[in-house]
C-alpha cells in the first residue's frame, strides 16, 4: 500500500503508557495486535474478567494512531447494510437483531466513557440521516418503511423537524438515538491507560509481518525486531490483514477525508444544532456529514472515498486536496454565516470495507486460537468496542449468549483488488463519489 493517512485531526494527544519496541523473544498468555478501540476493548475486558492473565498489546505505531484516533467522533446506532437491505438479505428477525445490537454497542460506549471517566468532549444527542436529493429521498423512504415494519424506534422527521434540530434545509430525515459525539482519540487513549493500570504490557512501533501456527501451543507472531509467542491472539488489524496474508477475505482499505473549523459565531452555532447536540448525515452513499465541537467549531467529512492501494504518494495527496476543497465548500454552504469560516484542520484516515458491508469478527481459518476483527465499514466507533468485548468472552471460553450476528464469521467475500480489475474497482468508487458530490452542489 502506497502512501499513508495525512493531516492532523483536532484531537489533542493524550498521555499513554510506555510502549517500547518489541525486541527478541517475548511470550504472553494473550497477544493483542492493534491498539485501536477493538484491540484495546478486548484487552480491557480480558484483564477485567481474568486478573493475572499475561496480556501484551502490540501496535505498528501506538494507541489511537490508526482509524480509532483519526475518526470524526460520530457515535450512532447503525451497522452493516441499511435496514431495508438487511431485511431483504437476512429476513426481518435477523435485521432487527442487527439494529438492536448496534443500539447496545452505542450504550456500551457511553457506559465505558462513564466507567473510565473520560474527558473526551462527550455530548449525548441525536443523529439525523436526512435527504434532499431524489436518490436520497428514495433511500430514506425504503429505510423508514423497513424500520416501521420491524417496530424500531426510528422516527421520521419532516423538513421542519430537521431544520428545528440542525438548521439546514432537507426534505425529510430519520432520527436515530441513542447517539453522541466525542473525541475518539481520547477514548482510545483512556482505554490504553486503563489496560496498563490492570497490568497489560504495551509495545509500539512494531508492525506485524507474519503469523505462523505454533508448533506446540498458540501462534508465533513475527515483528521487525522480534517474535511473540502467545497461547491465544487477537489480530485487530483491520485492512492490514491482506498485507499479512490473513485468510479472512477482502477487507479493502479506503481513504476517507475530514476537516475541522475555528469556532462559529454564537448565532450560527445555535442555528446548526449547538444546543441539541445533533449530528447530520446525508442519506446517499459516501454522504457528507457534520457535527459540532464543544469549543464551537465544526467537523465535516464524507463526499469522497479513495481506494489507496496502488496509488503513489503524489496522486494520493492530489486526491486529498480535491476532497478537502469540496468538503470546505459544502460546509460553508450550510449557513450564510459560514461563508468566511476558517478551516483549521484537514486530515484523512483509513477504514476497512467489505464487499457485503459487514464486519468480520471470528477465528482465523487455519490458525488455532487466533481471532480477527476488521471491516467495520465506517461504523467502527461503536462496533469496535462491542467486537472487542465479544472476542474477549470467546477467548475466555465464556461466549456471549444469543444467536451469532451476521458479522460473527471468519471471512468476508473476496473482491478483485489486484491487477487490471483494481482500476475498475477504483473507477466505480470514484463515480459513486462524483454522483454524491454533484447532488450536493
UniProtKB/TrEMBL annotation:
Residues 29-393 form the FAD dependent oxidoreductase domain. This is Oxidoreductase. InterPro entries: FAD-dep_OxRdtase, FAD/NAD-bd_sf. PANTHER family: FAD DEPENDENT OXIDOREDUCTASE DOMAIN-CONTAINING PROTEIN, SARCOSINE DEHYDROGENASE-RELATED. GO terms for cellular component: cytoplasm. Pfam families: DAO (PF01266).
